[in-house]
Amino acid sequence: MKSRDQEYKEIFIAEALEYYDALNRHISDLEKDPENEQLLAEVFRLLHNLKANAKAIGYEAIADVSHKLETAFGLIRSKELSFSDEVVTVLFDGIDMLGEMITGIDGTKEVEPSQELLRNLDIVINSSADNNAELTKVQKYYTTKNLSLSDLIYIQIKKLDHLLNLVGELIIDRDRILSISKELDHDDLKNVSAHLYRITEELQYSVMDARLVNVGSLFNKFPRIVRDVAVAEKKEINLDIIGQDIQIDRNILQIITDSLLHLMRNAISHGIEKADVRKKAKKTPQGNITLSAQNDRDTVILKLIDDGKGIDEEEVRRAIVQRGFLTADAAQDLRNTEVLSYLFEPGFSLAKEVTEVSGRGVGLDVVKNAIDSIGGRIKVDSKKGEGTTFTLFLPTSIAVKGALLCQVEENFYAIPLMHTDSVVALPTSELHEVGDLLVADINGETITIVSLKEMFNTDLNDYSVKKSNLEHDVQNIIIVTYNNRKLGLIVDKLLRQQDIVIKALSKPVNTIEIYAGVTLLGSGKVCLVLDVAAITRYFIARR
């Protein structure tokens, strides 16, 4: 695995080379149209970003040259400096030098800007057109050094998206070929199939690896955010960041960025108490927040932990009743984890006041929806007076996902491992009828049990099952989890775990809520992917 410094260096070089190419194009266009305000603004923006990025990663010489060029273009924008031939030459020299310094980062010796160039840039910045004659002619570096290309290239993420989709199609065909080779029992075909499997697997992981970035690229933006929000809220916050080196698909990190920002603001604004309140509770005046990442097989687990006032579960129960989600009796029957799951319901809020920063509970449905969209899940744990932990379980890849395959009657179904808690074999006698539903006590929890056979064969609104409808004395049950809630799904057969490529359903079946997509098995059989979120929401609401 790459070190964090190496990862940041490669990201910087890729972006800096993109800036350098754009600067070359824009300055050439400016030479033809020096009054073009849009071009001047874009050049200024590129140099400003390059300066900031270089300074952040410690490339002071690149930051210095970028800063001087940024200042020069600022003077040109404000009409304090003319875009004369002499000035253009110096600016071209400066940008050329930037290119050499950027491409030289990976070299054996760091490239330093020439003294003549720095002198000329200072003259341009500090003088008028009258003494531009003082400018020293700088020998362009590319007339006396060989041209070289960086080993790094900038790739648009949409190109990698397309490539990964093609790999997904290839995986489906590969599994089909492997199945056929076993059926025909032909040695040459078996050998070719085995080789195809290895090559395809290596290709899959290579493409997925190209999309990986360190979560630190997001995490390291939070110290400034925490400082700004803490100042606005008049609070002192200590932020600990752990696991910046953990890698995740860039698209997944992009999608959860706003969600993590929202959770952080909530933690500071309505999780952490004021200093005087903390002192009375025998806590440190300074609030503590931890943002961490860790790997667990094919899952990245992000946690945001605060040592604030926690969430009052009884207050949540009252809010559930007041907002019409459940009756008072039903709310009292909820398990503690189920109580907190209502924080993610649309419109649910515990905020007693409107502030610049959202109150805890406000907008958490948006957070959950964002995480659902990538096949992840979110969990909240809290203890009154001690603090709250939000845990995000995220897949490392969007296109290829681990799933548990099962069979109901003659049909095959896939349940994403992200939502699979456990598998149990339960005697039918241990199931209990509650209205039209079945429930069972599993590991100390009362869990609603759903017969997938009955669900598939009846309209959801007419779903009803009795123990007498079940065929076997022992039921194979897959326990799934979503939004702090668990549900048991009865299946006929448990097959195996397998990586699958999920494809969108076509019309008109794409409107059926209980299906999240479809995949093809190696046997050529169609396998529907169950939408655990939709199924769980429906049956928990019925209970």
TrEMBL record:
Residues 400-541 form the CheW-like domain. The keyword Kinase applies. The modification Phosphohistidine is found at residue 48. Pfam families: CheW, H-kinase_dim, HATPase_c, Hpt. PROSITE patterns: CHEW, HIS_KIN, HPT. It is an enzyme of class 2 (transferase). Residues 1-105 form the HPt domain. It catalyses: ATP + protein L-histidine = ADP + protein N-phospho-L-histidine. The keyword Iron-sulfur does not apply. Transmembrane segments: none annotated. GO terms for molecular function: ATP binding; phosphorelay sensor kinase activity. Keywords: ATP-binding, Chemotaxis, Kinase, Nucleotide-binding, Phosphoprotein, Transferase, Two-component regulatory system. Residues 195-398 form the Histidine kinase domain. GO terms for biological process: chemotaxis. Its EC number is 2.7.13.3. One of its GO terms (cellular component) is cytoplasm. PANTHER family: CHEMOTAXIS PROTEIN CHEA, SENSOR HISTIDINE KINASE CHEA. Involved in the transmission of sensory signals from the chemoreceptors to the flagellar motors. CheA is autophosphorylated; it can transfer its phosphate group to either CheB or CheY. This is Chemotaxis protein CheA.
